[in-house]
């Protein structure tokens, strides 16, 4: 080799970035968030697009978008025609891979199925959620991740149980009407007719809330107003749910009362209680379940940096929401985490406590919230360019 001949420098390996963000509610799905972040990273990477290797794993915590996240991770999307929250037929999706199904109750019984501005806090039913679960069983599922959240209902899962074969009868010997309000008329309950396949199926109740069924932290008191319940409705619904649990206690024994106070019983208008008492479900924080189902651990092994996020990073984020779960898992493996969001309502200290090094809110680029929502995609790409300049140098 000639004295002044130079040996080519070894090219640096690209930075491996894992995008594991939830949806920006009202503007972008989790899949779209990942697409826009990836585009911004590639434009903003100091070494050019080849200096970054992006892997996208859209995540969800059991609420809206859970089925979409599963499909993005390789599950097959299936659809079924079921009963909507107001009794009308709706098309609902679930996800299937082998004998594992991901069922999102909001697909059948969610607020998304109500006409704009219309709520039915006393009458909305979870009957369609039971039909959707039955469709998953019919498709061969023997493990069901039942994601609950975004519901229009406060019926304690009574409709769901009825769809799966339970008999909930009033004093006249007739089935009780739909919705939580009708549970005041419940006289007897018989769960012996529930679909026998449930006994051989592992059902995981995946939720980001751990409220009990009744009381000041219960389904009606905490979440009823979000579904249009007045204060009088809340009192009525809380009493109806307590009566429902008392009737079930006569039917199945003391465990009914125990489950009413169990974490997750109050999730999605009490559908968690119905799942615990009738389906033999086991409660787990939704984001933990979904990270397992989506294959987050092996993806994390391949990452140098994780980007998470959701529409609003606030105090609720710290209590079981997707970004907190992603950050906790990444921190345990020593992988740095940064976040993108629509708005930021956490201090740097709170972010650090959650394992997030820095957050990039869209409001830092566009202070008008309405424009942030309308132009979320392009703004998110600009935020990702800034992130790339800061963390991929």
From TrEMBL:
Q: Which GO terms describe its molecular function?
A: glycerate kinase activity
Q: Name one GO biological process term.
A: organic acid phosphorylation
- Gene3D superfamilies per the UniProt record, alphabetical: Glycerate kinase, domain 1, Glycerate kinase, domain 2
Which InterPro entries does the record associate with it? Glyc_kinase_flavodox-like_fold, Glycerate_kinase, Glycerate_kinase_RE-like, Glycerate_kinase_sf
Pfam families hit by this protein: Gly_kinase
UniProtKB keywords = Kinase, Transferase
Q: Which NCBIfam families match?
A: glycerate kinase
Family, similarity comment: Belongs to the glycerate kinase type-1 family.
**Protein name per its UniProtKB record:** Glycerate kinase
């Amino acid at each position: 080799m000639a004295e002044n001949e130079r040996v080519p420098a070894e090219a640096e390996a690209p930075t491996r970035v894992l995008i594991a963000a939830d949806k920006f509610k009202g503007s972008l799905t989790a899949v779209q968030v990942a697409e826009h972040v990836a585009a911004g990273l590639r434009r903003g990477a100091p070494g050019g697009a080849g200096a970054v290797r992006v892997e996208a794993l859209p995540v969800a915590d059991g609420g809206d978008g859970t089925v979409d996240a599963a499909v993005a991770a390789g599950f097959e999307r299936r659809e079924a025609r079921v009963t909507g929250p107001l009794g009308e037929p709706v098309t609902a999706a679930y996800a299937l891979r082998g004998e594992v199904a991901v069922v999102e109750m909001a697909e059948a019984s969610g607020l998304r199925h109500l006409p704009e501005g219309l709520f039915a806090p006393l009458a909305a039913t979870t009957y369609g959620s039971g039909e959707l679960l039955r469709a998953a069983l019919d498709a061969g599922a023997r493990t069901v991740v039942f994601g609950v959240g975004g519901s229009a209902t406060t019926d304690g899962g009574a409709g769901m149980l009825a769809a799966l074969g339970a008999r909930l009868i009033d004093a006249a010997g007739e089935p009780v009407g739909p919705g939580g309000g009708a549970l005041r008329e419940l006289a007897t309950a018989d769960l012996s007719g529930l679909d026998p396949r449930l006994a051989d199926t592992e059902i995981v109740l995946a939720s980001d809330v751990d409220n009990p069924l009744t009381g000041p932290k219960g389904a009606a008191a905490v979440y009823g107003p979000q579904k249009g319940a007045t204060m009088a409705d809340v009192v009525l619904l809380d009493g109806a749910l307590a009566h429902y649990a008392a009737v079930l206690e006569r039917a199945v024994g003391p465990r009914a009362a125990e489950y009413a106070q169990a974490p997750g019983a109050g999730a999605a208008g009490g559908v968690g209680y119905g799942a615990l008492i009738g389906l033999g479900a086991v409660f787990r924080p939704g984001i933990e379940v979904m990270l397992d189902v989506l294959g987050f651990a092996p993806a994390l092994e391949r990452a140098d940096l994780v980007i998470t996020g959701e529409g609003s990073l606030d105090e609720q984020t710290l209590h079981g929401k997707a970004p907190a779960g992603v950050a906790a898992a990444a921190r345990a493996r020593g992988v740095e985490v940064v976040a993108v969001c629509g708005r930021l309502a956490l201090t740097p200290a709170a972010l650090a406590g959650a394992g997030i090094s820095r957050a990039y809110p869209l409001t830092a680029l566009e202070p008008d919230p309405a424009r942030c929502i309308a132009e979320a995609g392009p703004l998110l790409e600009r935020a990702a360019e800034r992130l790339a300049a800061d963390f991929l140098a």
